[in-house]
């Protein structure tokens, strides 16, 4: 059986990986999953039921009960508080285990798929023929996220945004369960000095090289 075009896009918060992944999915006509939304929905779901972000068992129960209806309020899911809550619950092995099968099934669709997150190339789809690790300096990422959130009305000081990004990087890279790390066979894409169009073009070249290498 021939290999499917699975494109794994990992990287730290606000590096632009979601933007790149969504555009790659459109360009190749593939289904796309932003896996960060799953963790964000678990974090918010826990808070909404009065739970504590320190309660691993309660977080796992929310993750096990997650369905598509929890993923519709994208404005709330992508706000600052949801990002912080997500990175707290994402450290619990039970939460990650609860979300694993859905992500693996999504990745293994016969025609291929694009997924973005922190552990796509290492845990969810280590077999992916195309892997990117998208990054940028913390200052540039904080600037992008600050513009995004203040542009839609959230009130945040830039220094607080930068501190959020640095704290999230440390938590995501430092946890024991599926830490954020560049897969050995992933190509690093540093978008610090790239606008969206330039970053997408570079990502597309990486995918084209992977397709040629794997005969896809
Ligand atoms: N190369 C770029 N230059 C300038 N702005 C960018 C670039 N890439 C993405 N952006 C903008 O930065 C913000 C964050 O991008 P995006 O949501 O794609 O990041 P992300 O890595 O998926 O974030 P998260 O990890 O939180 O999901 C968005 O407003 C997006 O339009
Ligand atoms: N595959 C993933 C995806 C996300 N996380 C955690 O969720 C947080 C929010 O993710 P965003 O991509 O929407 O920023 C993130 O900080 C991670 O803690 C994850 O662990 N694995």
From TrEMBL:
Alphabetic keyword roster: ATP-binding, Cytoplasm, Kinase, Nucleotide-binding, Transferase
EC number, as in UniProt: 2.7.4.25
GO BP terms: pyrimidine nucleotide metabolic process
A Pfam cross-reference name: Cytidylate_kin
Residue span, Cytidylate kinase domain: 7-202
GO cellular component: cytoplasm
Official protein name in the record: Cytidylate kinase
Provenance organism: Brevundimonas basaltis
